[in-house]
Amino acid sequence: MRVVFFVLAALAQKPAATESADVGVEAKWTLAMKAYQAQSFEAASLVFFDIAESTAASYAARVEEAEFFLGKTLYQMRYFDAAFARFDKVVERGRAHKFFSATLSWLALLAHRLQGDAAVLERIARFSRNEFPPGIRNELSYLLGKHLFQTGELRRAEEILRGVQASSQFYPRAQFVYGLAQIRFGRPEEALKAFQTVFDLVPAGAAETELGPLRELAQLNMARILYQLERFKDANRLYRRIDGRSANWIAAIFEAAWAVFRERDYAKALGNLLTLDSPFYENEFFPEAYLLRAVTAFRNCRYDEVDRTVDIFLKRFEPLAAELKKQIQRLGNSSDKYFDFFVEMRKRAARRTGVVAGAGVSTKGDSAPDLLGRVLKLSMADRALTRMHAFVLQLDRELAAIRSTRGVWRKSALARSMFEAVSYHREQAAIDAGKRVRDRFVGAHTEIESLVQQAYRLRFETQNARLNRLTAEVREEQEFAPARPTRKVAVYEVMFPFKGEFWRDELGYYEVDVKSECQKK
Questions:
Q1: Which residues of 327-343 are buried (b: 16+ CB within 10 A; e: fewer)?
Q2: Cβ distance 300 to 483 under 8 Å?
Q3: Which long-range contacts (CB under 8 A, 24 or more apart) does 10-19 make?
Q4: How far apart are CA 152 and CA 155, in angstroms?
């Protein structure tokens, strides 16, 4: 096939406009197809490109076919973004292009290869669901429905997700996204049904499988919906079923603290918060836990305790708000700077333990730099951001692969055009990822600032309480805070008094005795 390559390379170098009678487009096409079938893809790509880019009238009959086959060839060469650029030309022409429908299957393959690139799914969205090939119809419906949900096209997302067949392996995933859409629509009961379907379909022992995390996430979402519906006991029941070995367990413990608080089970609420204080979770970040602890004390008229808790919160988190603001001001509005900062963080995370990538600060401790480390760690755990970064790395690999080629192909017009196109896409992908990083930073700053303001309001209400200036509604909450009956230990339980030491098998079972100091009027 080496001889064929040299022949094709020479043909590709020859301008189409000066085509000789003995070397016509059909001769080129025949040799290109032979090279493609023999998997000599470099050789085939040069001639497909030559035909596809030609403006000669004699080439017109083969241009669309060459365009389509060039995309297929570049895919086989693992230049996935460059392949997408070629298929994109087909889609842009619309149904007038004779390979419009045939392109869909290749776009489906690229949706897996370029997972951080929303453009692929945007092109798939131009096809109707009836055009999806039967063998991949359910998969494409799920991928497209998820994309439409993420871009806010909820009506169309809902319609397409409904089309995923219950017998399909993609049905549980489609139902999960469908449930999220129902939450956006304000239909909690419909969302509960969808998440219950996911929970029922994914086996309990599937934790290590691809679908395993979906079961637990469905359970968490059901608990959150029940909380919003003020069905606190049911919500807490689901929170407590989250496996203690799960990465979601500590979040469930925190959210359950709010559920039992709303039931006025203050001993259990504070017990859950005590679990958050254990050294096992010293790198976790739950600033709202301080406010919940303070509000619990306020409900029970324990004003000195409110003051102490609020003071600790403000001492820790006001400097953090200032530190976040300083970082945002330093990076400005430049998406490039945010992306570079993100990349540096990832690199440092790979090199060091106990240090957030790029922040250069420990995640242990309660100083502003330490807490900033925890915020950055959480921000960088964003799944969408991880996919976007993976896409940028994919484009970097394609650029490196193009640069590493040798001989005729590297010097070709095809290689130059690919390098320019992929470089442009890489630049845009980095900008998009940088915007995402900035949004995470700004969102974290806004959240902390809001909690700081809530802390100051709680301090103000505490002063009013001391002066007996509470509103009737707040006074009622305090005056009727129920005294908790003495805890009875079941025969299969053992009660140990907490003496400052945390044991992993006790986490989640703590209860803190709370004596209300409120006086009934």
A1: bbeebeeebeebbbbbb
A2: no
A3: 11/47, 11/50, 12/46, 12/47, 12/49, 12/50, 12/412, 13/408, 16/50, 16/51, 16/54, 16/55, 16/56, 16/58, 16/59, 17/54, 17/55, 17/56, 19/56, 19/58
A4: 9
Q: Give the chain's length.
A: 521
pLDDT digits (tens, 9 = 90+) for 421-450: 999 999 999 999 999 989 988 998 999 999
Q: pTM of whole model > 0.70?
A: yes
End-to-end CA distance of the chain: 97
Geometric angle at alpha carbon 38, from 36 and 43, rounded to 5° = 50
pLDDT of residue 71: 96
Residue 362: DSSP 8-state: B
CA gap 65, 231 in Å, rounded: 60
Pick out the chain residues at pLDDT < 50: 1-3, 6, 15-22, 353-363, 481, 491-492, 498-503
Q: How far apart are CA 399 and CA 408, in angstroms?
A: 17
Residue type, 454: Q
* Sole residue written with tokens 């009678």: 21
CA distance 519 to 478: 8
